[in-house]
Design goal:
CATH class: Alpha Beta
Radius of gyration: 18 Å
Structural class: alpha/beta
CATH topology: Glycerol-3-phosphate (1)-acyltransferase
Distance between the termini: 60 Å
Number of domains: 1
Length: 278
């Protein structure tokens, strides 16, 4: 390891630790707790700063949905902060994350719903919460793979959490995450897979010179009248497509700052007028 690489890692590690502590201090000192638009703005700003600290640039392809259910592939713990930096959302995450040091505390206090994997009642409770958020006109993000991958393909989906959108006859917004290195080639540096620890993942990520997080927002699919397994398969194919498309063939990216939208809170449900598919 070069001296320059060691200094970069040390500098980023210190800045990241201070940023995490700053986030905890902000949440601890805020009385009453932030909610709605103020929380969305705070989460977006803080997440954008975190992504910058770890040396990641975000490039957005397509239009960011201002509200609704977002369905994404899952590569890393970093995915949550990348999405929050451009589209603050409620997340549904595995319960183990709640126990992570620092990051777990931040997630527990910023719009994350934790569920125990494999528990049927957990999926029902999560769908109830998702429908509540969707009725309020907010964004909700889920990772139906149920685990992380190296990002070169998309694992089969567990579609239980799609039931909320089906019940509301709502639109579902597929989005694809992909990470590239300084040469715009696929990189596994941000991935968090298998028995890898969070510390090991951070060590790898912080040693990289530059990483670009591409997020592709594809056209929405109507969930009304669909079977959740069929809907899950259709969403998976849409999300896979950008991973197998050369970067130059994809649509022109937009500036991340131009693509950011604050969570909206309409006075009525945006799904009441949607009709199920025949």
């Amino acid at each position: 390891m070069s001296a320059r690489s060691s200094m970069q890692r040390a500098g980023r590690t210190l800045r990241l630790l201070l940023h995490l502590l700053r986030g905890i201090l902000i949440l601890w000192r805020t009385q009453p707790p932030l909610d709605g638009m103020p929380l969305a703005h705070a989460v977006q700003r803080w997440s954008h700063q975190l992504v910058q600290i770890v040396g990641v640039e975000i490039v957005v392809h397509g239009e960011v949905p201002p509200q609704g259910l977002l369905v994404l592939n899952h590569i890393s713990w970093l995915d949550v902060f990348v999405l929050n930096a451009i589209a603050p959302s409620h997340f549904v995450a595995k319960s183990e994350i709640a126990a992570w040091p620092l990051i777990g505390y931040l997630c527990r206090h910023t719009q994350t719903l934790f569920i125990e994997r494999g528990k049927h009642h957990a999926a029902r409770s999560a769908n109830t919460a998702i429908k509540h958020w969707l009725h309020r006109g907010e964004r909700v993000a889920i990772f139906p793979e149920g685990t992380t991958s190296y990002g070169d393909d998309v694992l089969p989906f567990h579609p239980a959490l799609l039931q909320s959108a089906i019940d509301l006859a709502a639109y579902v917004h597929p989005a694809t995450l992909r990470y590239t290195d300084v040469n715009e080639a696929h990189t596994i540096a941000p991935s968090f897979v298998g028995e890898q620890t969070l510390a090991q993942s951070l060590w790898t990520l912080l040693g990289e010179r530059h990483i670009t997080a591409h997020i592709h927002f594809s056209a929405a699919l109507m969930a009304g009248g669909a079977h959740r397994r069929s809907l899950g398969n259709a969403l998976r194919e849409v999300i896979r497509a950008p991973l197998h498309t050369p970067m130059k063939a994809l649509e022109t990216p937009s500036h991340p700052q131009d693509a950011t939208h604050s969570t909206r809170h309409p006075t009525h449900s945006p799904y009441q007028s949607h009709k199920p598919l025949a």
